């Protein structure tokens, strides 16, 4: 069996080149401002459907990069898997953080008491803990997205929402509701519309923004020595 | 916006029914012995390509279930994300375990010294630590699969290999090499052929087997009180 001799460091670059070439072959044009996110999602899934199913509120990527560059942000995920996938070195470099409440006994208890899902209880707790510095990244539970949209209607202003739950029940509708709500209230949001998505996709979109934020960071702006 | 009123506990059942129905509509017949795995992968990705791209060595699912039911197995993953996604309650119930070496400083050091990837160094370390009780679950690195196949050629006998890296460079070829090698040496293996896969898919295949193992476990066989 013959394998291509590609240095580990070059694999990502080579992959992105292949993805770019195939997008061209398929006649798909991704707006340049969304390209880094869309290509990274395709890189994570090998699924070109994402070239056409992603929805961005106006300037969502640029705004997301700026949000992460300011620092002090906490990304709250609805699965420990998504949490695991988010680049910790990039968060650290930017002065941001990530958290997942799903395994907390208090959250299990709160969900049980309220007759709701742990994902919903997690989103509510995040809104209490980080009302002004919160980015939601949802890769699994449509109930979490619905709750976030309801909290936005009620006055919550998360800095950004990544909305990519996957599945067959209420997933399609929850993303439409969330994206319409974010557009209405001017909250930057990125979604994969339709059924597709997942914890890996949620982490990957965060990383696409974090990498860009981290690579274009002006160290002097944060008082760092580089 | 109207949402379907489905109890959390019923969402999975409803989803599986939808998936079954759409497989039928598409005229796709999944062999009954592989159905639980294939359907769970579609449930995790909302991607019906997996109904046709998965490859199983003979009786891989039944053998996998039996392996996990015996207990004492360690699943070693090539990402912390896949590790996070594997059901810890099921592992515990069955007396099995999971581990990921990717963040270990010793592994980083070993990889650097050998001029290889951390994934390769992880697979090698796993072979040393669990030579007789090892299930590999690879959702990211084709280099890990190639190393596993080489170690099998050299005499290693993992109990099972889940082979679902995703990507554009050496991924297709690495899965073919691994599956051919596993077939040659009678090692149960499950792969998603082609480019698709991922850490979520690796965890999901493990869980499909673990859930079945756990649900059909005879407690008396392990001396448990149930």
Question: How would you describe what is shown here?
Answer:
Two copies of one chain form a homodimer. Chain A has eleven helices and six strands. Chain A is an alpha/beta fold and 226 residues long. The longest helix of chain A has 18 residues, at 8-25. At the A-B interface, α1, α2, α5, α9 and α10 of A face α1, α2, α5, α9 and α10 of B.
Short recap of the structure:
Chain A contains eleven helices and six strands. Chain A is an alpha/beta fold. Chain A is globular.
Describe the secondary structure blueprint for this structure.
Two copies of one chain form a homodimer.
Chain A: H1 8-25, H2 35-45, H3 50-53, E1 54-56, H4 60-70, E2 74-77, H5 80-85, H6 88-94, E3 97-100, H7 105-114, H8 118-129, E4 134-138, H9 142-153, E5 160-163, H10 171-185, E6 189-192, H11 199-215
Parallel strand pairs in A: 2-3, 2-4, 4-5, 5-6
Antiparallel strand pairs in A: 1-6
Helix pairs in contact in A: 1-2, 2-11, 4-11, 6-11, 7-8, 8-9, 9-10
Mean pLDDT of chain A: 94
Low-confidence stretches of chain A: 222-226
The N- to C-terminal Cα distance of chain A equals: 45 Å
The string of secondary-structure elements of chain A, in order, is HHHEHEHHEHHEHEHEH
Structural class of chain A: alpha/beta
Oligomer: homodimer
Strand content of chain A: 5-15%
The value of Rg of chain A in angstroms is 18 Å
Fraction in helix of chain A:
40-55%
User: Which word captures the global form of chain A?
Assistant: globular
Question: Quick one: biggest sheet of chain A?
Answer: 6 strands, mixed
Strand order of the largest sheet of chain A: 1-6-5-4-2-3
Number of strands of chain A: 6
Tally of individual helices of chain A:
11
Largest interface: A-B, 46 and 45 residues
